């Protein structure tokens, strides 16, 4: 087998993963100067702006080591956000080693740890790298101690580097070659290749990225995907440099791509195994999961006649994002739209933004919610993705909601605040571990719905930014939940209904009314805002009438200025909805997200 090394980089967000990856590409001449552009691995505009790697990619480098031998290094990039943790786990499963990049000015953070656990769980060789050592604020000794405590390595195993200046980057390459074991596997065995990512290309269909564990994939082979059962011809296979480079075969141990004119992402699932139709492997590579959306929200076109366009746009987005789901729904308040399922709130934001940028679709998004599992008095079990789809109260025997285990790392001085916040959010503390004298890790069982909204922002503010957070799902648990409705001038607005924890319902209803009062602009009549549980009104606010002539202050005959003002007002109205006789802005539908 060739000298191959397969590795990934695990790091907390902003610790310098992409910057270091760029330096590796540069030092191995994978990029020439002209191609060198900062952070090439984050190639989606949106990613670059949000500063996160949304989809994982892979890139192959050739490196001539100091021992004179040539090595092929496959860097498998991993997404950096909890919403995409399943993809991270498949990328890690495709590697033999990992660079553990820790920002020397920040130290170990929650995502460093959760991804590290994944890597250790897959027996990866861990190479710790302290990054950003060019900065004055680097706390080299302190962070080294944290790393030693965490992974039990020796002081001299820790590399010091700066992705910015390039310092120590060659040592990183040498460590990849000498510390990470080469891949094992039998190139003559039946084919087993693990898909760790896929992308949609408008001209070529789905392109899947995989790591071959056993066997050899040859151009033209008839292949099948174990879990989805779909079959294709390997029209083109190859390796990924900066561009796709076609090859005749990809052997055990290596990483590559396949294009087969596959039309839909539903056929190519991350975690699935590619094998040959004529000589199939006996079993798939373990660990396949069909990822399910965790968060749901209604998406409605601002202009009702854009419903079909919205459907077409969502279908296109789904081609390259199998984790997005949608089904038609209608709302009395908002008309026809779609109930969409997302992996998490960030994923939802990304979809909303892509609809806007790539498809010019302006949408109104309703309050997101988790999925609820309802057992009816008849004994049927149904999953409900929309509070307004709940059966009648008298027909509900049990409501369950998804729970997570939260992992938070903070400084000891903020521990009290963190615990209080988690308990307010219905958390139950599981354990608490001091990582060093003033850094502590706490674990809580919590309902997912409590962290879907503003948990992360609150955590940041109560800890002055010194808390990091990660979570994983643990399953459904029964909860005491009630449906809370909002009425505007006596009309219930279904898009504002929510399920809330019974003991918090009064407080929640009151805050919701207060927030809506702020968000709904005054109109020419009074607007009553009420919160209700069933027929019982539990809170009320009033938006007082106002008579406002916006052009009044443009005295004199400046027509063009007047027109501009009216134009501006029209634009501002775009994301408004008429409900009964009340105009409701988009922000009101997300009021829950802004409450404290
Ligand atoms: P990622 O989220 O882990 O991919 O982090 P990035 O590579 O995007 O880096 C986050 C920020 O840290 C960017 O502003 C980088 O310019 C900066 N950065 C990354 N590495 C270094 C380094 O070694 N030294 C300094 N001073 N800044 C760095
Ligand atoms: Mg990055």
From TrEMBL:
<keyword id="KW-0547">Nucleotide-binding</keyword>
<feature type="binding site">
    <location>
        <begin position="131"/>
        <end position="134"/>
    </location>
    <ligand>
        <name>GTP</name>
    </ligand>
</feature>
<keyword id="KW-0342">GTP-binding</keyword>
<dbReference type="GO" id="GO:0003924">
    <property type="term" value="F:GTPase activity"/>
</dbReference>
<dbReference type="InterPro" id="IPR035647">
    <property type="entry name" value="EFG_III/V"/>
</dbReference>
<dbReference type="InterPro" id="IPR000795">
    <property type="entry name" value="T_Tr_GTP-bd_dom"/>
</dbReference>
<dbReference type="GO" id="GO:0043022">
    <property type="term" value="F:ribosome binding"/>
</dbReference>
<feature type="binding site">
    <location>
        <begin position="14"/>
        <end position="19"/>
    </location>
    <ligand>
        <name>GTP</name>
    </ligand>
</feature>
<protein>
    <recommendedName>
        <fullName>Elongation factor 4</fullName>
        <ecNumber>3.6.5.n1</ecNumber>
    </recommendedName>
</protein>
<comment type="function">
    <text>Required for accurate and efficient protein synthesis under certain stress conditions. May act as a fidelity factor of the translation reaction, by catalyzing a one-codon backward translocation of tRNAs on improperly translocated ribosomes. Back-translocation proceeds from a post-translocation (POST) complex to a pre-translocation (PRE) complex, thus giving elongation factor G a second chance to translocate the tRNAs correctly. Binds to ribosomes in a GTP-dependent manner.</text>
</comment>
<dbReference type="InterPro" id="IPR006297">
    <property type="entry name" value="EF-4"/>
</dbReference>
<keyword id="KW-1003">Cell membrane</keyword>
<dbReference type="Pfam" id="PF06421">
    <property type="entry name" value="LepA_C"/>
</dbReference>
<dbReference type="InterPro" id="IPR038363">
    <property type="entry name" value="LepA_C_sf"/>
</dbReference>
<dbReference type="InterPro" id="IPR004161">
    <property type="entry name" value="EFTu-like_2"/>
</dbReference>
<dbReference type="Pfam" id="PF00009">
    <property type="entry name" value="GTP_EFTU"/>
</dbReference>
<comment type="similarity">
    <text>Belongs to the TRAFAC class translation factor GTPase superfamily. Classic translation factor GTPase family. LepA subfamily.</text>
</comment>
<dbReference type="GO" id="GO:0005525">
    <property type="term" value="F:GTP binding"/>
</dbReference>
<dbReference type="GO" id="GO:0045727">
    <property type="term" value="P:positive regulation of translation"/>
</dbReference>
<keyword id="KW-0378">Hydrolase</keyword>
<dbReference type="InterPro" id="IPR005225">
    <property type="entry name" value="Small_GTP-bd"/>
</dbReference>
<dbReference type="InterPro" id="IPR000640">
    <property type="entry name" value="EFG_V-like"/>
</dbReference>
<dbReference type="GO" id="GO:0003746">
    <property type="term" value="F:translation elongation factor activity"/>
</dbReference>
<keyword id="KW-0648">Protein biosynthesis</keyword>
<dbReference type="GO" id="GO:0005886">
    <property type="term" value="C:plasma membrane"/>
</dbReference>
<dbReference type="InterPro" id="IPR027417">
    <property type="entry name" value="P-loop_NTPase"/>
</dbReference>
<keyword id="KW-0472">Membrane</keyword>
<comment type="similarity">
    <text>Belongs to the GTP-binding elongation factor family. LepA subfamily.</text>
</comment>
<dbReference type="InterPro" id="IPR035654">
    <property type="entry name" value="LepA_IV"/>
</dbReference>
<dbReference type="Pfam" id="PF00679">
    <property type="entry name" value="EFG_C"/>
</dbReference>
<feature type="domain" description="Tr-type G">
    <location>
        <begin position="2"/>
        <end position="184"/>
    </location>
</feature>
<dbReference type="Pfam" id="PF03144">
    <property type="entry name" value="GTP_EFTU_D2"/>
</dbReference>
<dbReference type="InterPro" id="IPR013842">
    <property type="entry name" value="LepA_CTD"/>
</dbReference>
């Amino acid at each position: 087998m060739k000298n191959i090394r397969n590795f990934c980089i695990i790091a907390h967000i902003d610790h310098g993963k992409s910057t270091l990856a760029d330096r590796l590409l540069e030092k191995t001449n994978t990029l020439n100067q002209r191609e060198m552009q900062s952070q090439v691995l984050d190639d989606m505009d949106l990613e670059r702006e949000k500063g996160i790697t949304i989809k994982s990619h892979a890139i192959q480098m050739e490196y001539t080591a100091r021992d004179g031998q040539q090595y092929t290094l496959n860097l498998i990039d991993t997404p950096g956000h909890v919403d995409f943790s399943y993809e991270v786990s498949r990328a890690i499963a495709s590697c033999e080693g990992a660079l553990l990049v820790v920002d020397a000015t920040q130290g170990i953070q929650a995502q460093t740890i959760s991804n590290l656990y994944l890597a250790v769980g897959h027996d990866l060789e861990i190479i710790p790298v302290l990054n950003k050592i060019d900065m004055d604020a680097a706390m080299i000794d302190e962070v080294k101690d944290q790393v030693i405590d965490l992974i039990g390595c020796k002081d001299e195993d820790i590399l010091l580097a700066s992705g910015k200046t390039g310092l120590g980057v060659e040592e990183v390459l040498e460590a990849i070659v000498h510390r990470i074991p080469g891949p094992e596997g039998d190139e003559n065995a039946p084919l087993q290749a693990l898909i760790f990512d896929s992308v949609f290309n408008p001209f070529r269909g789905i392109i899947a990225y995989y790591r071959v564990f056993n066997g050899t994939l040859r151009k033209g082979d008839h292949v099948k995907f174990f879990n989805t059962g779909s079959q294709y011809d390997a029209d083109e296979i190859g390796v990924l440099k900066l561009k796709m480079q076609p090859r005749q075969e990809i052997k055990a141990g290596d990483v590559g791509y396949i294009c087969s004119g596959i039309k839909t992402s539903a056929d190519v699932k991350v975690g699935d195994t590619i094998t040959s139709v004529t000589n199939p492997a006996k079993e798939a590579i373990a660990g396949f999961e069909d990822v399910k959306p965790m968060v749901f929200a209604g998406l409605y076109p601002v202009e009702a006649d854009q419903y079909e366009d919205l459907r077409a746009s969502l279908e296109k987005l789904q081609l390259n994002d199998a984790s997005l789901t949608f089904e038609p729904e209608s709302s009395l308040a908002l008309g026809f739209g779609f109930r969409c399922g997302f992996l998490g709130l960030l994923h939802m934001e990304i979809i909303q933004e892509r609809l806007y940028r790539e498809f010019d679709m302006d949408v109104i998004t309703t309050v997101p919610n988790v999925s609820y599992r309802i057992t009816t008095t008849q004994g049927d079990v149904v999953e409900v993705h929309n509070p307004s789809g709940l059966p009648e109260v008298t027909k509900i025997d049990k409501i369950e909601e998804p729970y997570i285990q939260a992992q938070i790392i903070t400084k000891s001085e903020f521990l009290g605040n963190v615990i209080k916040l988690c308990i307010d959010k219905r958390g139950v503390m599981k354990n608490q571990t001091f990582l060093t004298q003033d850094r502590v890790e706490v674990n809580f069982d919590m309902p997912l719905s409590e962290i879907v909204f503003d948990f992360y922002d609150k955590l940041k503010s109560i800890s002055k930014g010194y808390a990091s957070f990660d979570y994983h799902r643990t399953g459904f648990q029964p909860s005491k939940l009630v449906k809370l409705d909002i009425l505007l001038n006596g009309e219930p607005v279904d898009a504002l209904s929510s399920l809330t924890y019974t003991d918090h319902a009064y407080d929640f209803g009151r805050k919701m009314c207060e927030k809506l009062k702020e968000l709904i602009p005054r109109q020419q009549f009074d607007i009553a805002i009420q919160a209700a549980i069933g027929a019982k009104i539990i809170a009320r606010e009033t938006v007082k009438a106002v008579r406002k002539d916006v052009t009044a202050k443009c005295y004199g005959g400046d027509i063009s200025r007047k027109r501009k003002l009216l134009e501006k007002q029209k634009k501002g109205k775009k994301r408004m909805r008429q409900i009964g006789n009340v105009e409701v802005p988009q922000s009101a539908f997300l009021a829950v997200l802004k409450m404290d």
